[in-house]
Structures are given as C-alpha cells and as structure tokens.
Amino acid sequence: MIEEILSEARNRMQSSLSVFSETLHGIRGNRASTALVDRLAVEYYGQETELRQLSNISTPEPMQILIRPYDKEAIRAIEKAIQLSDLGIHPNVEAEAIRLNMPPLTQERRQQLVKHLHRRTEDARVAIRNIRRSANEDLKEFQREKLISEDEQKLGQDEVQKLTDQFIEKMDALSRAKEADIMEL
After folding, report:
1. Would you say 65 and 57 are in contact if contact means Cβ atoms under 8 Å apart?
2. Residue 141's domain is classified under what CATH number?
C-alpha cells in the first residue's frame, strides 16, 4: 500500500517536472527557440488553435524564428496573435511566411525574465509540495483505518519527503540553468 502511494506521488511529481521543463522552454533565453511561439494561441476560423498546429516553425538562424503557415490565409491571424502576445517581438510578414527577429535582451528585460522564471519555479515547487501533502494525507488515512502501522506511516512520510526533496532539487537545477542562459551576455 505504501509503495502504491509512493509510486503515484513519484508519477505525479514527474508530470509536474515535465510541465515545468516545458514551461522553461517557453521563456526566452539568449537564443531563438521555437518553444517561444509553438503554443501561442491563434484565432483561426473562430477557434483558438496552437500555432504549432497551423504552421511549420523553425530557427534558420540563432536569433530568428521562421513561421510557415500550412494555410496562407492564416498569416494575418498569426501576425495578430504574435502582436497581442507578451513576446515583445515585431513580426516581419512575407508572402508565405513570418520572420521573428529576436532583438538582443536588455539588462532590464533579462531581469524581468528572471523574475518571471522565479515565479514559475515557485509555482512548480508549490505543485510538488501539494503532491507531498496529498500523499501524506493518504498515509494518515491508511493508518487511521489500521491498514498500516504508525511506524509504517512515519517511514512512508520520510520516503515522500525524500521524493519531494529530489524533485524540488531537479526543478531548482533546471531553473538555475535557465537563469544562467537568460543572464548570459
């Protein structure tokens, strides 16, 4: 029973780590990344659609993103979505594509991105701690129902705490690496 709780907690924490990692890809660093725009919501024929479903996105140069819509009619909608986003990038519209030339990050913008990164990191830590709390509540419930002993409950809580510490350290490592990328000149 304890192993089931630990396994479920581990799986949920791994999912949170994956979501956090994906979130980091969407935060601008020193290079252009397709992850900055691939989940951008575009109003396409009355429906919110992710940009990656509407176009081929690539980085032909280190500081440039190239968006080639599958449907040429979507170019205006994509341009509007980019302008309304908080990317701070002006799209250059061509006949069949959109180019996003990434301006160099100013020190002020770097600091804003780091603050945003820290907020996202803290949100991810809270998610991990909520999983820990849920697992500990399950252990307490099992102990109340006499399915496990008090000692087993304590051991289970210790294992849950070890898992929590491991995943928070992984998130912190990812966050530190992203911060270094943002602050790199």
Report:
1. yes
2. 1.10.132.20
C-alpha separations of 94 from 75, 97, 98, 169, 171 in Å: 9, 5, 6, 45, 40
- Mark whether 20 and 40 lie in a shared domain: no
Q: Which of 101, 121, 150 lies at the terminal end of a domain, its last residue? A: 101
State the residue range of the domain holding 80.
Answer: 34-101
Q: Is the pLDDT of residue 89 over 90?
A: no
Same domain, 18 and 75: no
If you compute the radius of gyration of the chain from its CA atoms, what whole number of angstroms results? 22
C-beta of residue 143 within 8 angstroms of C-beta of residue 1: no
4-27 in b/e burial notation, b at 16+ Cβ within 10 A? ebbeebbebbeebbeebeebbeeb
Write down the pLDDT at residue 84: 87
CATH of the domain at 74: 3.30.1360.40
Average pLDDT over residues 60-76: 90
